[in-house]
Design goal:
By secondary structure, this protein is α+β, with helices and mostly antiparallel strands. The longest helix is centred in the middle third of the chain and has 52 residues, at 298-349. The chain has 17 helices and 20 strands. Strand 4 and strand 5 form a beta hairpin. 33% of the residues are buried. The chain folds into four domains: 11-139, GAF domain (Beta-Lactamase, 2-Layer Sandwich), CATH 3.30.450.40; 164-322, 2-Layer Sandwich (Beta-Lactamase); 350-480, GAF domain (Beta-Lactamase); 489-641, 2-Layer Sandwich (Alpha-Beta Plaits).
Length: 659
């Protein structure tokens, strides 16, 4: 368009307007819009402006057509001659007067009149340069502010890292810094563990609560448990973990299916998640979120990435520190438990009594396992006996438990399954572990322990060792008991022998003197036993002795002591029994023997086995052991002289001792 001379060009007004606009415009874009409006008044439309500092790699192009602007910016990098051929036509490049080290053009379509614009080129060039310089300064200030903000945040993180190795405390501090630095209402730290994502810390800062940051941290830490969920249910968090790259979602509400269940309660509208990555693995991620839709800028993403990098190093250091502390604590516990084991083994091994050994084991058990019920059942001659522990809940261990132990070749310990506990009082008792007491491939008994929770492997292994020591101690005690029993027992009849009889009679006489109680003695002799031996043979005679021993054990009191005195003679000590009562007992014994069906006794000339018995009492008939035996023997002699199969007449009483 060409303006006629009759239409004066308003150069002065346009120049004045553009000059004011260059100083008042809030941005280069606002100034450029004013330039385009002025050019339109001169009949020039579709124009573009371009400018570039000499040090800049690309041109800054302004225009109303975004596609054309991009095309022009790319073409100017290649050639910026007098004209530029673009897809929408050729544009002439009019140089703008600009400060040193800056270049600029007004780009007008080929064929447009340029005379009218020439007077405006200086004010356009100066105004555009001013706006670009101001904008560059603002951007630089903004960048400086961002860097200062970032450095302050990184400094805070560094301070926290240097002041604590506690993972939970460190996580809470990092979440607090992340929310404050990025203006977010939520921050969370998530760790990847065995295919599961564990929430280490999540801090929700909502203005509606009206709480201080300290109060929010306290509330967050007060939650007893943090969520743990599989990676397959982690939504967009899974993308971060699998790709190892950040994920930013400006409008999470538009894609609710990508939000993991653990985040729903926070009602986040936009999120930014960055992985925690080492050279070898992905540890987890750090996440921030806002309750309104928000496009996270490149600077915000870089800031979170820097926080993530710092966090990764801190987590690795914290993990190593905690592992070291745990190993030391484990080692300390092991040393302490080994000390307990040494003491327990010594206490168990120093006794040669079966019951005492079992009690020592249970006394030391709490040093290794926290049990709410424990018991030891011992096996002897096919019979189970409750020996020590809590109140017995059954007379013998269930057969299914014994079968499970045998099927597993008697392991050092066996934790019973729920099926094995069914039908027992332990079905709701938590965990039950059985420790077999074995020595020389023989099952001696079971140690049964019920606990609320699982026992650590070390504690369980130490109990296994202690049970092994106890089994050896029980075996040794049992062998000693057998040796001692053999030393005081008659090999044929199983009754006490004469050696034990003399010792026990001495003891009973001492008790009698101390407590002023009588003690009586019966000496029994089998009538015509030599004849029985001749007729029945020595094996037959031995059978008679064995049967008589069983009969006597069954008929007398438990407090009475029955012994084989020698050959076919037997002796019975009756504590706290007068001579009269002893004679009565002797008569009952004589009658039992006469009526007992001894094997093959019908072959004997006298047809059945009978006995003669003598009775004496202390201190009525004697003042010493030897005298008591002599008086009872005299009574026995009188029975034989009177015809056998009877109780001899009691001795005459003797005067009491005078002191």
């Amino acid at each position: 368009m060409v303006l006629s001379e009759s239409q004066p060009i308003r150069h002065d007004a346009l120049t004045h307007r553009l000059t004011e606009l260059s100083s008042q415009a809030e941005s280069p874009e606002t100034f450029v819009q004013g330039v385009f409006a002025a050019l339109a008044e001169l009949g020039l439309v579709g124009c573009m402006l371009a400018a570039r500092p000499q040090t800049a790699p690309s041109w800054k192009v302004f225009g109303t057509d975004a596609a054309l602007v991009g095309e022009a910016a790319a073409a100017l990098v290649i050639s910026d001659g007098a004209s530029l051929a673009l897809s929408q036509g050729t544009f002439r490049l009019l140089n703008l007067p600009m400060p040193a080290r800056m270049r600029g053009y007004v780009m007008v379509r080929e064929g447009s009149s340029i005379e009218a614009i020439a007077p405006l080129l200086p004010v356009i060039g100066n105004g555009l340069a001013t706006q670009l310089l101001v904008g560059a300064q603002s951007e630089q200030e903004s960048l400086v502010n961002q860097l200062t903000h970032k450095l302050r945040a990184l400094k805070q993180v560094s301070h926290q890292i240097n002041n604590t190795y506690d993972l939970q405390e460190l996580s809470a501090s990092l979440c607090s810094i992340a929310t404050a630095t990025l203006g977010a209402q939520y921050a969370g730290l998530y760790l990847l563990e065995d295919g599961m994502i564990r929430v280490v810390e999540d801090l929700a800062v909502f203005k509606s609560k009206g709480l201080s940051l300290l109060k929010m941290l306290q509330e967050a830490n007060a939650r007893t448990s943090k969520p743990v969920f599989p990676l397959s249910q982690a939504g967009f968090l899974e993308d971060v973990i699998r790709t190892g790259k950040p994920v930013a979602i400006a409008d999470l509400l538009a894609v609710p299916e990508r939000c993991p269940q653990a985040l729903l309660e926070h009602q986040l509208a936009s999120v930014l998640a960055t992985p925690l990555v080492t050279q070898r693995e992905i540890l987890g991620l750090i996440l921030v979120g806002k309750q309104e839709a928000h496009v996270f800028t490149e600077g915000e993403q870089e800031l979170l990435a820097d926080l993530a990098q710092q966090t990764t190093g801190a987590f690795v250091t914290s993990k190593l520190f905690n592992n070291t502390v745990q190993e030391k604590q484990r080692a300390d516990r092991m040393v302490e438990q080994l000390k307990h084991l040494n003491v327990a083994s010594a206490d168990v091994g120093k006794t040669l009594n079966v019951t005492a050994a079992c009690q020592e084991l249970l006394a030391h058990l709490p040093n290794f396992m926290v049990a709410h019920w424990q018991a030891i059942y011992l096996l002897k001659d096919g019979n189970w006996t409750f020996t020590a522990g809590s109140t017995p809940v059954f007379s013998a261990p269930p057969v299914s438990w014994l079968e499970a132990l045998e099927a597993d070749d008697y392991p050092a310990s066996l934790e019973l399954t729920h099926d094995l506990l069914a039908g027992t009082p332990f079905v709701e008792a938590g965990r039950v572990t059985v420790f077999p007491l074995r020595a020389k491939q023989e099952l001696l008994g079971l140690v049964i322990v019920a606990t609320e929770t699982a026992t650590d492997t070390t504690g369980r292994e130490l109990v296994e060792t202690l049970v092994g020591h106890t089994a050896l101690s029980i075996n040794n005690a049992t062998m000693l008991e057998q040796v001692e029993r053999l030393a005081i027992t008659d090999g044929l009849t199983g009754l006490y022998n004469r050696r034990y009889f003399n010792s026990r009679l001495e003891t009973e006489l001492q008790r009698s003197q101390r407590f002023a109680h009588p003690v009586s003695l019966i000496i029994l002799d089998i009538d015509y036993f030599k004849v029985a031996n001749d007729v029945l043979g020595h094996l037959g005679g031995d059978a008679v002795l064995k049967q008589l021993a069983v009969l006597l054990r069954e008929k007398v009191r438990k407090v009475d002591i029955v012994a084989r005195y020698g050959g076919e003679e037997f002796a019975i000590i009756l504590p706290e029994t007068t001579a009269t009562n002893a004679a009565y007992v002797a008569e009952k014994i004589r009658n039992w023997i006469e009526e007992f069906p001894f094997t093959d006794q019908e072959r004997l000339p006298h047809r059945n086995i009978t006995s003669s018995l003598g009775v004496a009492s202390f201190p009525e008939h004697a003042h010493s052991l030897e005298e008591l035996i002599h008086r009872a023997d005299d009574s026995l002699y009188r029975a034989k002289e009177a015809g056998r199969n009877q109780v001899g007449r009691l001795p005459e009483p003797i005067p009491p001792l005078t002191h």
